């Protein structure tokens, strides 16, 4: 059964409305709601004051109607009394500004008071509801680090020092690793170390990188604390928290190991005609974070959101097309923020499954229609991909440091390659370089600046065993601490590349009109490889860069000596896909139609409002705007 529903905030409504909610949920096919996400102050009105009676009643009401509950631990927004009693519970910015109450997420993840109060709340909720028949799963906190990407408070300083001490053992090792002889940055003891607060000029790159690691780890520790309390309280249901796509502050590879099921919140901009490709990327990322386990689209908007400069409607059919995109790419549940549109508060203009204007609305009709379309369907995971793109959070953090030859937006580099694949209708997984790559024919690793020994060994053996590897400029430049390795650049991959860079030149981030190059260009020395002179690639790269093709073992390395936009990536991919023997499942599909493989064919989703004609093997069909068609293909066509 596919889960269908959304965030439900009964605490915003009188109890007469609850009965109508349940009736309309059943009409819409809702079978799962997230409950209590921001209910802390409603459950605990002061430190010793608890009220669970209302939660008992709504859980019973939902349970009797057969609607499952994804019960939240309510720790995402602390009550006002917690700030009054413990003023230093709030997070602090790099400029030393405390982030006060009155909004949400105003807690310091390392505050001992926050941890104590949250632990108590979770223990009470877990003990009371672990055996409640309506509870199907647990929703820990909400969108960790969404608004507060890092905390620079005194609590964070204490916890950061302890984290560093665990990592390095003694301060001399830290000094050596960070290179603190530079600018007289040497530390005499761990106590002298601060979070990277505002300073006159660039901070130490090793310290910045470790602070990113610490931030992701310390917030993950919070998640694990709540999860373990729920388990100790007797919870047997799956436990998760909601991710936010490719979200830089948290290393979701590490987080994925700690959640039972991946859940994601996704809000592609309906005004951006290319946003469905970026959405497809995050869906593939979510599937890849926990292969083989259907993930949950935990939040999306039924129509417009409220938080962009201009908040466009979703076009008729677009919500269904984006939901089907998630299902085709491995989701097992389709959920929304939120069930009923609020009448007060910051999000009253955010769409909901049940709009403020009621059931005589297009949004409601589409929600009901989509819910009913799910009744006969079941979860259907796509088959394994033959192509993979490397995404690595530690590399992202390292690339994001200042003082590089040019400013690099790692996500944009990834998306250029992903979008080129997607526009070419080639299905891909997302991996880390040190994963098992044996099942892939083609691996693409854009801007893999920080490359670990394990990652390098894995890429080398992937090519040696017959794979095709695509890399770009600024790959294999530094070690785990953002320091150059001895012996020059690309010391770990130079045999694979058939050469190595000796210097890097910064280019405008958006490139120039005359070529597909951008960001960084390498001065590259070719050793054993032969420089490719594919006229198509050379002309797209504008003569400013080359594609170095080098056979290595049974495979092939294709190294582009620049960063490139989607057009450049597409051109290089023509060479790479041919070498790997991978092609689109159907030739000549229009650009805005996406194709996702199924076990016996392909799902086609037209992600634009205009109808298109599609040539399938042996027949022609017309796909309406935002229409979806499942096509079976014989083994020979797949
Ligand atoms: C996030 C949050 C929700 C809500 C929506 C609005 O996903 O988790 O509480 O604020 O954004 O789009």
Could you characterize what this model shows?
Among the domains are: 387-580, Class I glutamine amidotransferase (GATase) domain (Rossmann fold); 593-633, no CATH class. The protein is built from 18 helices and 26 strands. Strands 7-6-5-2-1-11-10-9-8 form a 9-stranded parallel sheet, covered by helices on one side. A hairpin with a 2-residue loop joins strand 19 (547-552) and strand 20. Helix 14 (410-423) crosses helix 18. The radius of gyration is 26 Å and the shape is globular. It binds alpha-D-galactopyranose (GLA). Alpha-D-galactopyranose binds next to loops. Alpha-D-galactopyranose binds at residues 142-143, 265, 267, 299, 305, 337, 347, 350.
Which whole number gives the mean pLDDT? 96
Bound molecules: alpha-D-galactopyranose
**SS class:** alpha/beta
CATH superfamily of the domain at 387-580: Class I glutamine amidotransferase (GATase) domain
Q: What CATH architecture of the domain at 387-580 do you see? A: 3-Layer(aba) Sandwich
Q: Sheet bearing the most strands, described?
A: 9 strands, parallel
Would you count the extended β strands for me? 26
CATH topology of the domain at 387-580: Rossmann fold
Ends distance: 28 Å
Helix content: 25-40%
What is the level 1 CATH name of the domain at 387-580?
Alpha Beta
| Outline type | globular
Q: What is the strand arrangement across the widest sheet?
A: 7-6-5-2-1-11-10-9-8
Question: Which stretches are low in confidence, meaning pLDDT under 50 for 5 or more residues running?
Answer: none
Radius of gyration (Å): 26 Å
